[in-house]
Amino acid sequence: MKRLERDKARDLRRKGYSVKEITGMLGVAKSSVSLWVRFIELTANQKRRLSEKGHSLELIEKRRATRLSNEYASRQVFFQQALKEIDAISERDLFFIGQGLYWGEGAKYNRGNASFYNSDPHLIQIMMRFYREICKVPESKFRAQVLLHPHLDARRAETYWSKISGIPRSQFQKTSQQHNKASKGKKDSLPMGTFTIGVYDTKLFLKIMGWMEGSYLRMIPVQDQVPGRYRGVL
Q1: What does 17-66 look like in DSSP terms, one character per residue?
Q2: pLDDT at 144
Q3: What angle do CA 177, 178, 181 make, to 5 degrees?
Q4: What is the C-alpha to C-alpha distance for residues 196 and 181, in angstroms, rounded to an integer?
Q5: Is this model's pTM higher than 0.85 or not?
Q6: CA neighbor of 115 nearest in space, from 173, 198, 175
Q7: Are 190 and 119 in contact (CB under 8 A)?
Q8: What is the pLDDT of residue 230?
Q9: How far is CA 161 from the centre of its chain?
Q10: How far apart are alpha carbons 16 and 22 in whole angstroms?
């Protein structure tokens, strides 16, 4: 059925009908018609006819550009207003931000491992501040590792993450490059892979677990609290 409608749409387009007219005639989605006829070039006379009906291609594009510009400006207003709501980040703020990020992406099931994993360079930079300023991790104790698809440049990724984290490449473990059949032949969305901030310290692990549990106990009413998920590793 779709093939028949597609062929009819293309035939009508070659005769000079607009996408809107074809949509109404065939009773199909405008997006489908646009996709089917996108490669068909109209003659000068056909364009003139559409222009007289208010369907000028130039006018449509101008309206589209204006709409997108207005939408962007509107989004920027909300974004900038929210941006101004953030003042200087205190050490106490960093304490809670860091443990919150660790709660989501940190190692939790091996008490000798207080590492953090992510592909977002912003989060890596924030967590490095948390480890250095709140946890007081010595620079020599940091380890790092990159997880990368095998078709990507490991040296480039290591150099990138070293710059982001401030951890020397000499403290990097060997980059793990694993095959992923699902991504074969596709544009890779993580050209620098995923980064691990390696911190192997039992005392720090237990301290972070305690911070997280303490925050939970003070945020959630006693009657609503559930048993700690990570107590099995203590």
Answers
A1: --HHHHHHHHT--HHHHHHHTTTPPPPHHHHHHHHHTT--HHHHHHHHHH
A2: 97
A3: 140
A4: 23
A5: no
A6: 198
A7: yes
A8: 66
A9: 17
A10: 10
Following DSSP, what letter does each residue of 160-204 receive, concatenated?
HHHHHH---GGGBPPPEE---GGGTTS--S-TT-EEEEE---HHH
Helix (H, G, I), strand (E, B) or coil at 143: strand
Q: Which mean pLDDT values do the consecutive 10-residue runs of the chain (234 residues) have?
A: 83 86 88 89 80 63 81 90 93 96 94 95 98 97 95 94 98 84 59 96 95 93 83 66
Task: Find tokens 């749409």 and name the residue.
Answer: 9
Residue 108: helix, strand or coil by DSSP? coil
* Residues 82-109: b if buried by 16+ CB within 10 A, e if exposed: eeeeeeeeeeeeebebbbebbbebbbbe
Residues constituting the chain:
234
Closest CA relative to residue 106, chosen from 86, 131, 140 = 131
Residues 6 or more apart whose Cβ sits within 8 Å of residue 13: 19, 22, 36, 37, 40, 42
Nearest to 115 by CA among 230, 205, 3, 217: 205
Could you read off the pLDDT of 13-49 as tens digits, one per residue?
888 888 888 888 888 888 889 889 888 888 888 877 7
- Tell me the residue type at 117: Y
Note whether 208 and 120 are within 8 A (CB): no
Q: What is the pLDDT of residue 190?
A: 87
AA identity, residue 172: F
- The amino acid at residue 220 is I
Of 153, 134, 131, the C-alpha closest to 143 is 131
